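Feature request, filed as a ticket because there's no other form

It would be nice if the structure record came with a short human-readable summary line next to the tokens. Right now we just get the raw output. Example of a typical job, pasted below so the devs can see what we mean:
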Amino acid sequence: MDIAKTNQAIINQIKNIIEQARQNVSLAINRELLYSYWQIGKLIADSERSTGVDDISARSFILELSKDLTTELGKGFSRSNLFNMRSFYLNFPDVQTLSGQLSWSHYCELLSISDKNKRSFYEKETQNSKWSVRELKRQISTSLYERLLLSDGESNKETVLSLAQEGIEISNPTDIIKDPYVFEFLNIPENKPMKEDDLRKTLVLHIEKFLLELGRGFHFVGTEQRVTLNNTHRYVDMVFYNKILRAYILIELKTVKFMPEAVGQLNAYLNYYSAEVNDETDNPPIGIILCTDKDSIDAEYALGGLSNNIFASRYVYYIPNKNELITQVEAVLKDWHEQENQE
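Raw output as currently delivered:
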């Protein structure tokens, strides 16, 4: 008997047991902390209601309460934290809906979002994608919710409700597409010209952040992946695999406006992957052309009627103007509200 091998197997199992126990303890502590803060928020809100405290006098009330609690219990009861606890209870009145997977810091970030559907989306997607607080902040600041609502050119009631209730449901290729993609993490000035090679290399240097922007389920395969057609070698800019869709994702980078001829080249790559690279369990590959701008008419005619899934999306080097995106979403939602009322 190989004693060393047997001992190592036992050690690995013990490590797994200890790690799982630590995670369980951490989750239990987090759940109790959230429940405690929820109860404190309820006490504050109930006290305000019973004593007739309005929003203006609530500030003085919570300030005095903060001072007293800090004297009695120490740190953790600043005025801002007590306001957050109060808001926590008011915005999540059913304690059973709280997720023990999210920390208090996650919830404090979510409480900064006034729109219920938007807040619910970020809450669900934080759970689904296991975002850290930093990643959640980044997705909020880059207006992920608004970009997803506008990615297919319009927003509708079903999309809003689906995002709010489920987060991003990835069941078909269109679910992974955003427009625009935001590369603010590259720190490239908006109007600085850049070659495709340089853009590709820079994205690889920031691959973890690029994967976060691409979304859930993406795994990096490589750059300049060779495709040989009629003894001629060509190269796909970037290749990923999405484990949820079970499909290769081929990305072509363009540092210019969308050109219809790029579609033919990418279509050939997809056919090659379908015939030569895909396993039996893989779904058809998906192509994405990332460009600096696109004309909707050009894209519609160039991409229409293809048997392969090819999409064209813009990318930007800066965080989009959130107010403009929100205005666009509100305008579209207003349209379907008016249509709904007329029916």
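Something like this underneath would help us a lot:
The beta strands are 181-182, 218-229, 232-242, 247-253, 286-291, 309-316.
The two ends are 78 Å apart (CA to CA).
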